[in-house]
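Worked example 2:
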Amino acid sequence: MGIKCPKCQFDNTSDSKFCKECGTQLLAAEEIAVTETIEAPKEELTRGTTLANRYEIIEELGKGGMGRVYRVEDTKLKQEIALKLIKPEIAKDKKTIERFRNELKTARMITHKNVCRMFDLGEVDGAHFITMEYVRGEDLKSMIRMSGQLGVKTAINIAKQVCDGLAEAHRLGVVHRDLKSSNIMIDKEGNVRIMDFGIARFLRTKGITGTGTMIGTPEYMSPEQVEGKEVDQRSDIYSLGVILYEMVSGKVPFEGETPFSIALKHKNEIPKEPREHNSQIHKDLSGTILKCLEKDKEHRYQSAEKVCSELIRIEKGIPSTERIRLERKLKPEVQLKRFKPFIVPGILLLAAILIIAGYFILREIRRKGVPEKEVSKSGIIEGMQWKNSIAVLPFIDLSREKDQEYLCDGMTDDIIGKLSRIKELRVTSRTSVMRYKNTNKDIKDIGKELGVATILEGSIQREKDNIRVNAQLINVDSGFHLWSENYDRKLESVFDIQDDVSKDIAEALKIQLTESDSEQLSKVPTESIDAYEYYIKGRSLFYMYDKSKNAQAIEMFNKALNHDSSFSLAYSGLSKCYSVQRQLWDTNDELYVLAENAAKKAIELDNRSAEAHFALGYVYETKNAYQEMEKEMREVLKLNPNHLHAHDSIGDVLNARGELEEALREYRLALMIDPVFLPSLWNTSMVRIKQGQYRTAKEILLKAQEIQERNAVTMRFMGTLYMHQRDYENAVERLEQVVKLNPLDLRAHVLLGLSYAFISRYKDAKKQANIIGERVSLPNEQNAPFLYLLGRVSIEQNNWKDALEYFKKALKTKEIQHVISHQDVQGAIAETYFRQGKFSIALREYNKINDIPTGRHQVDYLWAKRHYMLAKAYEKMNNKAIAKKEYQKFLFLWKDADPGIAEVEDAEKRLAELKNL
């Protein structure tokens, strides 16, 4: 039997690997039997076109094995629906189309709330399409990718709704046959919809599907699907088991290099127990998942109702608060390690915050009772439903003298600022688009990296007071120009150009501007074009984050104010310059005063300026005044819900308070706006480190490394992760690279010094202390990081007297925020006594930590480890009752940690033994 080319239909011999006519790669017969790989269709629908004189294309939602899916408006019913354009290669088979038509008749009978409604199969000019209900929300696959793993309660809730939808379909005799996480949509209210019942099979009609054609996705296919056998509702039960496995573990049970290899694993291999990936999973839930994944369908659950009842039973057994995880398999060989890991210096990146454990338990009880959508008190999540997305690439200077770069950057920034105020439009920030300055990268690649549907690119040509601006809006997928325009104006009309470009883009994307949107777009920041020129020059200099350039930026902003003393944005620019100067290069606290006064003046002049409120919030952030910072950042988001940095900053506030899941939500929102925003990736990784989820943290940092390969901050975070994992050799390797790339990174020098000390390279550790002494403009006797590092070296050398002397001197110094805090130092004093065996003194010193005032309250690695050390101390003093409570607090705070962490396993073992006493 020959092999027909899927592209040109040429009949090739059975041993052909490539088509002899067109060169297309040919699949072996066994591969075709598992999954059919067909060349992507050449036909695509572009925004604004109308199909069948009825369906107006709004946007492409995605593409899959059957074809592309679009959000469209049914112009007859005036309703938004989804439309799947079937690939021509599939649609040309009349038998296939007939099968779809028959199956749709039955699929339309399913009217359950957890099933996406199927409407019709249409045809126009030889193109076949399926219409269905449009569901606003996010697919489950994306949710899992974003969070790594879903909480057990969340996973059960989703699975129960899937079961309800499947039960109704199965009652009507319909099997989905391609159930997978990407075919499950979650709307903003948390309601589940199963998609794509359009390819389901009518159980009572055999023989409709052609022999040897496997409809399904290899990662989710049941063994009987792989073998090409008849399938029934139990095949969907198997796929549901895969989805449950994926939700709680973050991965599917079987992976491989080819679809064929994955499919064979479903047929022949036994999946690992889900608890091996996530020890938080209760053994009953793990057992339920494995029963769904039985190879023999007779041994699986026989109905979706039965799976649902099992999930309800398991859910009732889960306490309202997340319980201490004691189910993890204990390892008798776990030995108490040296106490190095307890001071692994996450403290040097985030000041250790102290608050009694009871507070966190009560907070968790309150939070767990609140629906997911209400967790964010800002109301931001409900309001951020973008219909369109855009990136504004840096405008190109076409002027003869090539001296208008600042004007090009100013045009880019201001158009981004105007567009970002449109609620229906997701606008990627300047932080990322400036990466593509002077680049020859393809528009499609840029759009894919930034996750946007459209890109605006343009150029500026200036001759004296005349200016020509060219702008064009491009569809990323098709490369089609949606809109293009030239503007020939006087320079003094630059604001009109920005206004026109923004409104023209909105019109091209069919965005209906509100009165507020139009008012904001037409807003003029200053009546003085000279003031504006100085302002955009200052802004361009500020973004270089260089000490001398920052000073020049201050000069430019002041010149702008000389021309217009009521220019709010110029005051905002001044404020940010002073804040950055105080944060990076100068310890003079007078800079705080200057920054705060400038920001408040900006707000006084324009209370509805998002940048003015952000400038004030930034001042509070540099001062660690988190309550005031949060107030201003939330005001920023009311004025501009697309403000990337405000979401990230609110995440920092929540992170600092120990509200880690809420912090992750804000970081995710920032990454929704800008998927390559490194600070939110770094912050997300640090939250995962605080939770003991080292594997997830590393995946995030590797993603950050892909975005910018030799970024010193990413390397520092990676070095920190290795230190938490006690892989000090790798930590040293990363941190040595960091200090070469950025010799001024004080935190990196402290971390590197500690890593040297932990591997007994004491001379190198002291060398880092001396470098810190040179970097900080304070005498060594007043230099907290210098004294702290020497104290840590002394501890590693068992030189207790010197260690205590260094630490006590460090307590008398002024704190250097984000590098070393008095809580860190006090904890080191307590540890010194602990390691000497002076447990009663160690307990006394630990209790002093609560008396140290701090503006930050966070549950993190060090605070959790403190409970572990207290438990050990109380055990040594034979106070087993309090030791037991401290172990419980430790395990509660690290309930989400990766399996196999020695301290967690030891704490579980010790707690179990103490309970038996």
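The first strand starts at residue 3 and ends at 4. Residues 28-42, 200-214, 320-385, 854-860 have pLDDT under 50 and may be disordered.
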